[in-house]
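Problem 12. The chain below contains 124 residues. Write out its predicted structure in token notation.
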Amino acid sequence: MAGTTLVPAVNQVELHPGLQQSALRAFHAEHGIATEAWSPLAQGAVLDDPAVKAIAARHDRSPAQVVIRWHLQLGNIVIPKSVTPARIRENFDVFGFTLADEEMRAVAALDRDLRTGPHPDELN
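Solution.
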């Protein structure tokens, strides 16, 4: 932002429970930039986590639905990739439940700098 007068409307960054980018999301919020999650399910790497599985069981949902719901409650734009019709339907069915504060904190505790893609500072 120091090098331009233009403020992006959206910034798409790798973002999931294993890489939550809290400081960047706070910067976005401060400047009115929408945060879009790239690889919102960490390519499946966070779906086997015991905390995510326990929350999913309590809500009778899949771990993917829990992670997508977590994103939505944080205010992230989340568009999970899938080519499987059943998963696409499941990924969309995340509006009939809400994660409690303690469940949001449990997912937040999974932040561990887990990148599934290249680090943007090291690309090219």
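Discussion. The chain has a mean pLDDT of 92. Students who got a different answer should revisit the alignment rule from Section 12.3.
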